[in-house]
């Protein structure tokens, strides 16, 4: 997941950087750094982000 993809997913789900940061338990500046490609998203956080966004789009059963 690139920073651009993260920003698109966050915006599509109407989340602020602060809201996303709180959900995945990181500091808000880290979200900004990822979105600007200042820091690469680690494998661990790519998985956390993927699981988070998949959970938002999964149908409620």
TrEMBL record:
What domain of life does the UniProt record list for this protein's source?
A: Bacteria
One matching Pfam family, short form?
A: HTH_3
Q: Which residues form the HTH cro/C1-type domain?
A: 6-42
Q: List, in alphabetical order, the Gene Ontology terms for molecular function in this entry.
A: DNA binding
Check the record and name the PROSITE patterns matching this protein: HTH_CROC1
Which SMART domains does the record associate with it? Answer: HTH_XRE
TM stretches of this protein = none
* The protein's name: Transcriptional regulator
């Amino acid at each position: 997941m690139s920073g651009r993809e993260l920003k698109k997913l966050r915006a599509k789900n109407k989340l602020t950087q602060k809201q996303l940061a709180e959900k995945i338990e990181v500091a808000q500046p880290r979200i900004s750094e990822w979105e600007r490609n200042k820091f690469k998203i680690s494998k661990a956080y790519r998985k956390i982000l993927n699981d988070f966004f998949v959970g938002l789009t999964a149908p409620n059963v």
